[in-house]
Protein 1
Amino acid sequence: MSDSTAMTRRALLLGVGAAGGAGAMFAAMGALGLAPDAQEKAFVPPQPSDFALRGRGAAKVVVLGAGVAGLTCAYELGKAGYDCTVLEAADRVGGRNLTLRAGDRLTEKDGETQTAEFGEGTYFNAGPGRIAQWMVTMDYCRELGVPIETFVNNNASAYVYTRGMTAPARARTARADLYGYVAELLAKATDAGALNRRLTKDDRERLAEFLRRFGDIGPDLTYRGSTRRGFETYPGVTGGVPVGAPPSLSDVLAAGTGRALTMDFGYEQAMPMFQPVGGMDAIVTALVRAVGRDRIKTGARVTGLKNLPDGVEVAYQGGTIRADYCVATLPPHLLARLPHNLGAPITAALRTPVPVAAGKIGLEYGRRWWEIDDRIYGGITETDLDITHIWYPSHGYHSGSGLVVGYYNTEENAHLYGELSHRDRRSRALTQGKKIHGEKYRTELRSSVSIAWQRQPHIEGGWVYWPSHQGAFTLLQRPAGRVYFAGDWLTHLIAWQAGAMESARKAVTELHRRVLQTSS
Ligand code: PHE
């Protein structure tokens, strides 16, 4: 940059700063590629005035894939007037953000086609189902006016089931026992002086006081169970009937319930979590509306991708399109198979992430027996069966029907179910769920739909896993010529819509900066 250019930019920025304040100045600096690092992290959407500053217009961009990453790219670029076309191979938009309702058809690769026969108002989030508060997905819901409600990710009344148990335990019971015994062990070890080298006398007193609360242990530091375990008959006019004394420490450890209790300890799964009202695809619907349906071509499978000296050329089923830039958001394993001229290292990099199988089944019931009989309002039962989890709906409480997710599994379990016909998946899922909920789990079923993401055309996986974040991962963060990559697979938020959105924002920011810099 020459001194005179620097002066001009400085004068310009000072002018912007005086007129619009620091926010406007930083936005302009971001657009000019001058913002300091910390500021660059805050996303500033491209805006028409960015071009006014440079006296140039927006570019033409072809976006491959109308999933959450592709739609977010088109939405953000569209804010500044970029001319975006989104090519989508499927005949519907949304990618893995898929909500199935009555009449929806679901076709698998080399497999059967199911038709959802749900009652009116029933929906099945076959893909993403929960959003953490801190995720950018929440910002898009706010910005796009998508109403949200609580998603119950943890319910003390849900069950924990481990093979060999005669009856499932309530999560609260399992937790009371595990916390109780852990508290007892630690309190007794501390009391016996085993931790004296680590703890001062004050530390020991404070720890003891915490452990009494944590485990509900007695003055003698022994865990004997407590009302935290729950009741056979809850207190009311009478004192109720507690579930009784805990199993031995050894039995509690053998039951392996810690698996279930720690599920929501991480930053991704902690309560409260959220879901859009009426189905996860409300996010897709809102993005499509904002992008403009006419900018999205469905049934347009991409068959070739070429960098040209001054643009890109994309061949698809139904035509060829030329643009200034491309953002490719298809799953990496599909991009790797696409004929392109981006070079062998790019193909090798795209082949590096490993697709992970994932599956779900939606079981619709005409009676919300989990609420009526089990007193479970939302939440998840954790099992060590091949179904892994059972999700109860976090909406429609007390209505006449509802949909339970009968399995949500990955890897081997997802392959196991994925290879079965829908009928057999259902019957296997019912056999497993019956171990927890009894005969009604089978007899009261109204309809069902199952998905094996590894068998979904144009997707072929639940998500991907990177053996390492070096090399390929880093290479694909950068554009290959005029082709940018985006998707949850390029982030540390894999298998979250937030990953797709964050990645889209990154690609948009870099593409926009380049357009502003190269057109002057
Ligand atoms: N986001 C998915 C889910 O909520 C998959 C996932 C699970 C991702 C756990 C990270 C951690 O189930």
Note: The chain has a mean pLDDT of 93.
Protein 2
Amino acid sequence: MRTQVAIIGAGPAGLMLGRLLELAGIEAVIIERRSADYVLSRIRAGVLEQGSMALMDRAGVSSRMHKQGLLHEGIELSFDGERHRIDFSALIGRQVMVYGQTEMTRDLMDARAASGALTIYEADDVQLHDFDGATPHVTYRRNGVTQRLDCAVIAGCDGYHGISRQSVPQQALTTFERVYPFGWLGVLVDQPPVAHELIYAHHERGFALCSMRSPSRSRYYVQVPADEQVAAWSDQRFWDELRLRLDPQTAASLVTGPAIEKSIAPLRSFVAEPLRFGALFLAGDAAHIVPPTGAKGLNLAMSDVGSLADALIEWFVEHSPAGINAYSTQVLQRIWKAERFSWWMTSLLHTFPETGPFGRRIQRAEFDYLRGSLAAQQSLAENYVGLE
Ligand code: FAS
Ligand code: PHB
């Protein structure tokens, strides 16, 4: 089998890239390790930047997002029970959209299925070959039979644990990583959100986040030690701990219920450089990871594939290599700005026992500065809604 672009991974990055290429008349085959149902079962991001919303419009898959998504004009920061609202609209005239990654992935999957473009699910032992040579190709095993897909370009959209980045010779890659000493225990519950907007709470017991998926479905997180086990957290223990980390008024308004999903996500900052190796291009979590505190992970993946699609369209349609040659440098500049903001939000809002009382005083000063400075609030706002 032969195609123009072999995309590894049918997460949001792979599906969005496939859609943008298809609309430009460029053929792409997506090879995914898991089943479509498994991909949809993963509960992940919840907030879209305007750039991601625009990409959904460009991909022609945004009607449900505009109908069901919740436009948010700000967020609340809570510091030891004191709340301060960051008003995006007043500060920078822009907003974000609350629309779950699961729904976005479903929209992209449905569009791909409707167009008949090929996605190979449940592909085992995916291997990348000769992406630095004349015959780039991918092999995989399905139903026990090994298949080969020849292509001109391979797009590695297979996430942090994928095969693409691991296929690059060690000496050709430089990685930068910070692993945080904690994770996020997340709960999904079919109850109305505790507030109209997201609440990011810093408390001496640890960070908490009150988010949502719809007016009737909420998403909550608490910071837990990096080695914490989900089994140690009954629903009741989660709700009790969450209340302790919120201001009294919010804690009293919390509507709890049985968790329909409960999981722990580790937190790390990670970047691989460069993002291109001959015919192989890395995008999304395959290239970088951010702690979810800044709501950047999914949005960064979207901006990567928006740039990669433009570069590949320029290459295949206009036969100009300018975009593909500039891809890595251009996209890494944006990645590092998102890494910085996600690290900063994480440093501000989580407890770091190792930094002791001095560290907490610095966090308090940072919050007081934010509360009193329009410039500081504008900086947070423009980073959160997405740098243009
Ligand atoms: P993905 O990991 O989503 O998709 C990669 C795909 O490649 C997967 O379907 C995988 O099965 C497939 N794959 C892997 N190896 C393969 C192989 N060898 N062959 C073929 N296919 C292979 N971001 C936020 O903005 N906010 C959040 O709250 C948030 N929460 C998160 C919670 C968790 C537990 C995790 C892990 C991430 C979270 N993220 C969050 C980040 C997340 O949303 C990612 O940024 C987003 O999924 C990136 O999309 P992709 O790059 O497509 O990678
Ligand atoms: C979520 O709703 O899952 C969510 C929202 C904002 C974040 C992280 C996660 O920063």
Note: The chain has a mean pLDDT of 97.
